[in-house]
Amino acid sequence: MTGLALLAAINFHTLLFLLFAGLACGFAIGVVLADNVVRMALYLVLSLGATAGLFFLAGAEFIGAMQLMIYVGGTLVLLVFGVMLTAQAPFVSIKTSTGDRVLAGIVAASLLALLLQAAFSVDDWRRPALGEVAQPSATPLGMALLGARVDDPAAGVPATAARSGYLLPFEIVSVHLLVVLVGAAYLARAKRRRTPRAIEVAASVVEPRVARGAATGSASALVGGGSR
Amino acid sequence: MTFGIDACVSAVFAAGLLGEPVSVTHYLVVGAILFTAGIVCMAVKRNALGVLMGIELVLNGANVNFVAFASPYLRGEGAVSLGLDGQVIALFVILLAAAEAAVALAITLNFYNNHATVDIDRADDLKG
């Protein structure tokens, strides 16, 4: 095989899919294996960004854009803020015990085996794609959220079947989002307390529990640091 | 050297990795790996924010499956596709994940303010 023939034989959609899939899976495993919470946040950003690439490759360009804007740009920034607000020295890397790790590895292997077996079990899913080029999905999505369907019926569904839009779910989700954000603001509001430093009070309350032996070494180190 | 690369590429083609178009199963495998990583992350991490990251991974793995089933590109011959429904569900999952992250982060910060730690093994006030 010459180089040109090789180049012509490569399916570039498959090549890009393998690239993004490898990045997404690799960084997801990196999130699991990393102990440092800041690194976990970075790996999560990269994994979700690579997943957005997978969405683009599957023809869901609006979902991919939303993944980048809402998930990577919004939710994960929120998480990174949480990491920064709580990343005191004792909490940056909290180690898991080896027994838990081994147990989790066994559970993960069996769960993965189950899911892969299910993924390969249906013949319809394994047939290679026809590669139909569909129209961009942003306009049909927007119209469907307004209650009108302008997209072609899905394959296998008769064209005359009545299809509903998504106006009601859209309204429910929007009200849900509003309620949730009000609730989050209420939960995270700054409380006025009589004592100036709530954290130091909590540390002194924790101390007898440490003496009882309920907490781990890192906890006693924290309390030692707090009382100093 | 050239021969080595040639042999390598030929081996990849023999395995059917690069030459064949992607099917739904490829996406399901990626979704399964993301889901498993998220479950393990939720179960193993002792940092509350690590547990939150595990939840994000699980939701994302489910989203990959929805998008794959909805995709007109990946549909094989005679297979039924979810059509637009799958994409709308994926969109709703993204929105609800944002809401969930906001509330969970507020709870975590509250816990941090009250207990001065984010170690979830220390969240045992309700233990009998």
Describe this structure in a few short sentences.
Chain A has about 230 residues and is mostly helical.
What is the overall shape of chain B? Answer: elongated
CATH architecture of the largest domain in chain A: Up-down Bundle
Count of folded domains of chain A: 4
Structural class based on helices, strands and sheet pairing of chain B = mainly alpha
- Indicate the low-confidence ranges of chain A by residue numbers: 210-228
- CATH C-level class of the largest domain in chain A is Mainly Alpha
Number of helices of chain A: 10
Could you say what the CATH topology of chain B is called? Helix Hairpins
From the 3D structure, determine the CATH topology of the largest domain in chain A. Four Helix Bundle (Hemerythrin (Met), subunit A)
How would a crystallographer describe the biggest sheet of chain B?
A: none
Please, what is the average pLDDT of chain B? 85
